[in-house]
# Entry
Amino acid sequence: MKTHRYISAVAGIALAFTSCSLIGSLDDLKIDYVYTDETVISDAASAENVLAGIYASWKSFGNCAFFTNQALRAGTIRYANIVGYDEFQINQLTDDNTSLEQFYTGQYFIINGANSFIEALGDGRQITGLSDERKEEMLSEAYFLKALSEHYLLCTFGQFYDQTSEYGIVIPDGPVRESITKARSTVADSYDVILSDLDKAVNAPEYPAVGHAGRYAVMLLRAKVLLNAGRYQDAALTAGNLIQAKDADLAGSFQEPFAAPYESSEILFDLYCTYPESTLGSDSYSYYYGSPGDVLTDLADSIDGVPGDGATSSVSNEDVAAWLAEGTNEQDIIAYINEMNMGFTSYISFQDIVDEYVSYGFSEAEAYEYAIQEIISYAELMGVEFEGSGWTGYDSRYIQTYSNPQGSNGISKYIYPQFVSGPSNTIFLLRLADAYYIKAEAEARQGESHYADARDALARVIERAGYDRDYVDAIPDDQLVRTIMQHRFMENFTENMDDYYDQVRALILDGENFCSNDGCVSLTNTLVAPVPRTAIAGNNLLEQLPY
# Structure
């Protein structure tokens, strides 16, 4: 269960710095209220507000928009029109990419906020109204947030897949208040710091406030970090302990957690978002997730062992064109699409949709096909039934997500409309289902004596996607790791960036990707993002990866 203790987010967090050459210029980061570390926390309420402010930092535009751009890189969405998107679409990132810089700076902003909070709360002084138990919980939450940002920085800007690499990330020793320089830590040392922070997060609450992290989120992040670090025995043990404690909370269907994201016990950590009080900085981009990328579609078609049989509809283009030509149908559905997109589109005709796809680099023929499918999807939402409609041959998770989607964004993972009072869309950072995939892969990578445990973990989580035990047992041993990673991709797509990071791990560790994304995930692409130019300019000890 989730405890309904909603905490308002405040902008004033304990950061008393001006700029920092450790991570580059922070001149563009504005804080509404500036406090010193000695005065920002005066009682329990102010401590809660500062912690809530660190959580709120996750919702900045730069942090959230980066997730959308990463989905382009992973091939799980078809297009996006966000600053810097064109480089993500082909995975040729440059050190002056604005989205990259915003994410880099935003993650260090969170780390600095957490470090300041930890120092202020841990200085030994008494804080009015704050119990020792709650103080330890809050410190644990701060360490978790710090570890989460370190994890994302390492996976994005470091060679996270290679324990012998010198190219980890810069790890601040504490709050940064003045201009300093510091070199990258090695990958091994970076992992040690992240795991040490998670050690200090063990007192997180069992039942956290909605939108806050608890002890089970800490366990899942630890399992994920251990898997990425190649510590498979520890990863399997940690994921197994989490499964033992929380198996009853795994939802009965894949779609269930997304239907009520702030109520689901399967979701271990997401950001609580509500309009107009506290929304994601990039929530207006939710509708981009409604157009699945070709990489995702191809895998959804082939994962059942019968590639080429996937069909979203047998409705003919001619039938759709004829329907559009009848009466006011074209005007009606165009108005409906614009309404569903909350004014972010202003189409006048069907051709406008075609032209937009062309502007993203698709041929006229491809653009026409995509536009037709978009018309079919929205027409079905309006209640129109075309003869021959219906999705077959795809993975059921794909069908549940995109066929007759819930909400107004064309995807049943993100159901809330933009700019409408009430709950709004979130980022699903940690979900219990992932523990089963982590355990499965970690067991399988330990060799034949662990295959049975790997199959058990996989079978438990994909049964709700329609795959029975016979399917799992029939997976060849030499394809087990690959198949587990494919199913994890089909589970997590567009959620937490693992859909990209796992492709990089597969390419490096196994010599080939597990999906058809060779255009973005190959040794000729920027698998690891370059550190922003501004950070290099402000820190003469920070080295760029050799390309």
Notes: The radius of gyration is 23 Å. Confidence is low (pLDDT under 50) at residues 1-35. The chain is about 45% helix and 5% strand. The longest strand covers residues 267-270.
